[in-house]
Amino acid sequence: MTHDALIIGAGHNGLVAACYLARAGLKVLVVEKNDWIGGAAVSRELFPGFTYSNCSYVSSLFRPEIMRDLELPKHGLQILPYEGGAMFTEDGGYLGMFRDHEANRREIARHSRRDAEAYDRYSRDILRNCRLIRPMLMRRPPDLASFAPRDLMELAWLGKQITGQSEAQIYDMLRFWTMSIADFLDEYFESPVVKAYQAVGSIIGTALGPMSPGTAYVLLHHAMGDVDGNVGSWGYSRGGMGGITKALTASLRAAGGEIVTGSGVSRILVQNGRAVGVALENGNEHRAKRVISNMDVRRTFLKHVEEKELPGEFVHRVQRFKTRGSSGKLNIALDGLPKFTALPEGAPNIKGDMHFTDTIEKMELAYDDWKAGHYSRDPFQDMMIPTLIDPTMTPPGKHFMSCFVQYAPPKIEGRDWTDADRDGFRDACLNQIERYAPGFKSLVLHCEVRTPRELEAEVGLTEGNIFQGELTFDQMFFNRPVPGYANYRSPIKDLWLCGSSTHPGGGVMGAPGRNAAAEVLRDMKMPAKDMSDAYAIV
Predict the structure, then answer these.
(1) Ranges in the chain, pLDDT < 50
(2) Domains of the chain: total
(3) Same structural domain for residues 70 and 112?
């Protein structure tokens, strides 16, 4: 049987693309190497009675347009907003943050009255940049070297968005997109802990430190999502992050799509310069009129396509695409709720994101270890206990803790990770938590540790990069993944990309999958069915 479209990888972007194509009436097949569905957005029971979000762990970026188009709430998706967060300080104090802006101002004033006044200006400037970027998420970037009418129209639209701002705002925007988060925050705040908390989103998943140019944009990438229309808010998917891909799977099957699990792709079949299907590692072959890869650009073209099928310059650019892993993850089953000595009894901050790296300088020191080829001895952790809001993930009285960790390099001093390295990484994280929550380690029933080694081997993330490629400005928008191919196409006819190494980048967003499907349907001259943004297919 020849399918109309074959998607490689049942991660969230692959499933989003598959859903749109199936709802347009195409015969769609998704092939997935693992026995489970979801890629990095998955819920798994790895310890009896405990459900882990063992890769991605929070939701904000997933586009509400996609939720509506694919009727995901009807298929069980529910996002539960969480309350605030905390940055613990070494002197036994803390900075709490809340969902309410005025509550945040009052809390910041405990540390600096000047910073409390600056918080309004800071929030306004971040929101202004978010409003500029958000409309671009669901649009195909223009080719700057093309004179095609569509590319010229898109450049004109982009110019209109930029020139609609004042001259001062344009200068500020260009500075913001290219400067370090440390320099950016210095223009607003004086308190070290206030700056440290605001810098958190700038280093998540990126092989840069807070003093590196470009990290201010990474903060924006994490700030432009929303939960229930509240821009910048974050939440948990009920039942773990697999709730998102479970709903996508149900939507796909309701539209007639199929999924085959349990064997990875060995190679993409190409005949006469055209993709015609895939050969799986188990020996099976599936034929299709078009192939859409949810793998990253390096894995797709350097591992699964014969080099002779590709232009040499394209291969060279793909080889230079940066996928430097920088992150690890601990998933912990707890016998009870840990007590953080700094937090007052009943403080809501424990229901959100908690951190221990209370200065920009400490974050940079953690990055210094990564640059030296070692995991951070005193790491940055983005720590959460989602079971305080979603008790469905564990037995009564028990809890699940998710710890996202910076920094963990793809190699340890130039060699592969060993089990001993992984255990040392785990101990560095657990010992850090113990310092702020005495008795914490005695509550640990089970701990899953995921270094870049596991992220690559199990999920297919090259070098363990959670975004399928750095979110630096040289690899964004019309440069993602490489110049001339930001339109989800490739040099091989009918071979497409739909993963996070394409515009607009990483995170559980769904926009790359949706945009890729729009381009496939445009080429097929299919009607704009089930798509909120009519611009996608004209």
Answers:
(1) 534-538
(2) 3
(3) no
